[in-house]
Amino acid sequence: MSEMPRDAGTLKFPSLSPAKESPPSPFYTMLESAPPDYLTQRDEPGNFSPTFPVYNFFYGTLTDPAQLSRILDLSEEPQLREAEVFGYAVARWGDYPALINSKQGDVVTGRAYLLRSAEEAQKLASYETNAYEVADCWIYFKDGREPAEAGGKVFVYAGDARALLEQRFDRKLWSRQMGRKLG
Fold first, then answer.
1. Would the pTM of this model clear 0.70, i.e. be above it?
2. E-assigned strands of 21-158?
3. Torsions phi, psi for 92 (to 5 deg)
4. Strand 107-115 vs strand 96-101: parallel, antiparallel, or unpaired?
5. Please, are residues 6 and 33 in contact by the beta-carbon 8 Å criterion?
6. If pLDDT is split at 50, 70 and 90, which confidence band does 39 have?
7. What are phi and psi of 160, to 5 degrees?
8. Region entry Disordered: which residue ranges (predicted)?
């Protein structure tokens, strides 16, 4: 059996700079100067619960308790908590708000609800349609209660955010929505 080289556990980046005379992009420069363990490090907490209960952050129509109650078929009004998430922005997708990735300091305010089951999560996913996808997020609660923050889930726009912002046809979302119907 051959022995692994001593530096086998260290990631090495090949030169990513373009061969032509133009300056490399800032992203390539950043990767070339990054420490060897850069891709395995996390900048924010990563303790996201894969099981239930789990908080879900809402920023649009689902911040209305009556709407959420109707969708989840709850017998009583849901307890929503004032909250915010960072690194996102809200754009308009027709009449609907759509959460998109944004700059690290950007904040979206809304409400969070503690989902109790996979059945509740499925009902929300059906309501949101495949125009949105579930993503992990870190939720900061603004109501002074505990927990003050928690890992959770959020629905983000599944299409091309740039096309959404530029109000152009979104081929990525169209394909996602039509893919199952085209056969």
1. no
2. 54-58, 81-86, 88-93, 96-101, 107-115, 132-141, 149-157
3. -100, 130
4. unpaired
5. no
6. low
7. -85, 110
8. 1-45
Question: What's CA 11's distance to the chain center, in Å?
Answer: 27
Residue 49 is encoded by which pair of tokens?
């619960």
Contact 134, 125 (CB under 8 A): yes
* Structure tokens given for 88: 């996102």
C-beta of residue 151 within 8 angstroms of C-beta of residue 135: no
Q: How far apart are CA 154 and CA 42, in angstroms?
A: 19
* 141, 82 contact by CB (below 8 A): yes
Q: Which CATH architecture has domain 50-171?
A: Roll (3.10)
Match 């009583």 to its residue by tokens: 76
pLDDT score for 99 = 94
Residues 6 or more apart in contact with residue 29 via CB below 8 angstroms: 17
